[in-house]
Amino acid sequence: MSLIDAALVIGGIALAWALLGNLGGMVSFGHSAFVGVGGYVSALLTARAGLPVPAGLLLGGVGAVLAAVVMLPVLRLRGPYFALAILAYAHIFRILATEWTSVTGGAAGVSGVPPLPVIAGIDFGGKTGAYFVILTIVCVFAWIYARVSASHYGLALRAMHDSEDATQVLGVNSTLLKAAMLLLSAFMTGVVGAFNAHYIGFLEPDYAFAGLWVTLPIVAAIFGGYRTIGGPLLGAIVVYLLDQLVFKSLISSGHQLILGALLVVMIVFSPRGLLPLLTRRRERDA
Fold first, then answer.
1. Mean pLDDT for the stretch of residues 84-108
2. Where are the bilayer-spanning segments (predicted)?
3. Would residue 165 count as lying in a domain?
4. Do the beta carbons of residue 7 and residue 228 sit within 8 Å?
5. Are 219 and 43 in contact (CB under 8 A)?
6. CA 97 → CA 115, 178, 194, 208, 259, distances in Å?
7. Using CA atoms, how far apart are residues 39 and 195, in angstroms rounded to an integer?
8. Which sign does the torsion angle of CA 53, 198, 38, 238 carry?
9. Whose C-alpha in 48, 81, 189, 254 is 20 to 30 A from the C-alpha of 71?
10. pLDDT tens, 5-44?
11. Beta strand pairing call for 118-119 and 110-111
């Protein structure tokens, strides 16, 4: 159950990353900034200000949105320049969390983060209760993703992938739509980061802003099919469970090398990912 909870955390971040990449057309290497900021905001507000944990989860998403607002100037950049600029912001936030000791506790971190509450006799702080919480969060975010994709905003965003200049001629404000996707993706990631902080009960900068919050969600999204809604979630569950249950037992150190090789094989044989591959096979069989 712990592995499934962790896989769904990765899946939630992968879904938010895929939303930005698929609809917004932007590849981000800095989603660890939103995970860390969301976790710290929720942890500090609940542990020191006494806010309820559900409110802390939402405010963690709001904190991540404010962090994304600071990043809005990089929307002028495209391609690898945007990705590297977002990565630089993630490092800046990690340094701030480390050096701002009066608020964040510095390298010592924040201990005693309140667990998820007990409601109607159900302990959501346990592994099974936390599973239902993160599953609900991920399902709600997947529904939001689907609604945005099916709207006329989603149509405009997909049209921008072919020709952003042409869509601007038609009156589409591409910068505004990209900013909206960045803020929405940040909110989703911040809520998941806040959940993770309450789930583990401790937070420190090197973990909150770790590179794994970038690499694993990207691998999961691409492996499962980042242009689909269910692909990032499926990819996160398959990739994380394979890595922890199979590859780690084969190679205790450096087991993620096998994960990288598996991703290469998937890209070569099914560039669109695992979910489209399974869908095509099912349709062919039918």
1. 92
2. 56-74, 81-97, 130-148, 180-201, 207-226, 257-275
3. yes
4. no
5. no
6. 21, 27, 15, 9, 31
7. 7
8. negative
9. 48
10. 999 999 999 999 999 988 878 888 999 999 999 999 999 9
11. unpaired
Strand partners of residue 123: 118
Instruction: Compute φ and ψ for 123, nearest 5 degrees.
Output: -85, 100
Q: Which helix (H) or strand (E) holds 54?
A: helix 53-71
Structure confidence by residue, pLDDT tens digits, 242-257: 888 888 887 777 777 7
Give backbone dihedrals phi and psi of 272, rounded to 5 degrees, phi first: -80, -10
Pinpoint the alpha helices (H) of 110-211: 127-150, 152-162, 164-169, 174-200, 205-208
d(CA 81, CA 87) in angstroms, rounded, equals 10
pTM over 0.85: yes
The answer to the question of residue 285 being in a domain is no
Counting beta carbons within 10 angstroms of the beta carbon of residue 265, is it exposed (0 to 12), middle (13 to 18) or buried (19 or more)?
A: exposed
Rounded Cα–Cα distance for residues 11 and 191 (Å): 13
Q: What are phi and psi of 209, to 5 degrees?
A: -110, 30
Q: Would you say 43 and 252 are in contact if contact means Cβ atoms under 8 Å apart? A: no
Dump strand ranges (E) for 77-140.
Answer: 110-111, 118-119, 122-123
Q: Residue 111 pairs with which residues in a beta bridge?
A: 202
Q: What is the pLDDT of residues 145-159, one digit of tens each?
A: 999 999 888 888 877
- Locate tokens 């896989």: which residue? 7
- pLDDT tens digit sequence for 59-78: 999 999 999 999 999 888 88
CA dist 260 to 116, 121, 169, 231, 278, Å? 34, 43, 42, 18, 21
255: in domain: no
Domain count for the chain, please give it: 1
Which residues on neighbouring strands pair with residue 122, listed in sequence order? 119
Instruction: At 60, list the tokens.
Output: 């963690």
